[in-house]
User: What shape does this take?
Amino acid sequence: MMLNSTIIGNKIAEARKKSNLSQAELANIISISPQAVGKWERGESMPDITTLNRLAEIFGLDLNYFSHSFQSASNEKQNETHSIGTPIEQSKEEPKKRFDWNMSNSNWVDADFSGLKDLKDKFSSSNIKNCKFIKSDLSGLTLKGNAITDCDFSQSDIRNGKIYASEISKSTFEEASLIDAEVQQSEIKNCNFNNSNLSGAELINSNFQKNSIDNAVLKHTSFKNIGFSEITFGGNIEDCSFENCSFKGVKFENVTILNTFFKHNRKFNKVEFINCKVDKLTFAFLKSNGAKLEGIVIIEEQSTEKI
Assistant: This one.
């Protein structure tokens, strides 16, 4: 059983008892079965983030209470109890409680975080598996020391996000916005970036392996010290740079590459170019980097010149 499920279950049970609610009464308030509440409290399953939010409201607690790193500053103050259906009253002098939750340093499995906002750095150092972040506002999100597997970030806004020392695998970022995102010292493999927007993104000192990147927007995107493996680039690449990268099993197929810088890349003569169009400047960089020129056509102002 995952540690977070046990901890959250214990905290639900503790808060329920302090609120003088039975499992059946709590289940009735949130319209689920008493058996489901029992499973939560035994750590056999875990409520999703929306239900945790509802539980926090019922118990009159901060959502952060359910994080295993939560430290209560004054447990003695939480001696108020309420009957079923009656919320805990707050003093007039106290400001209305604002949720300031943090899910870092936790294990999350099968949770649905779709549509969430303002995550920022609240998921760092966490193991996240089979979770959904569909259409979430993750702008400015920081992931540091994370292990993320089988997660869905489709159509999410991750602009200005930062991913450090993390491993992301078997996850989808289809149609996600990664504008101006930064990835460092991370491993990204078997992921789907189709139709995503990587404009202005920087990938540094990382591995990018067996990912799908069809029709992704690559504009002002920088790749430095990246290990590319089993990747096929498609669509348009404009004003980008590939520097000190290594290439294994990489193809550029049906790609238009404009004003893009290639320098000091390793095994670049193994890269396949299939039906690609480039401008003169990009062609010069490719040639100086030892690229195979078959399959590349230079774009002229009004015509093309086959090599």
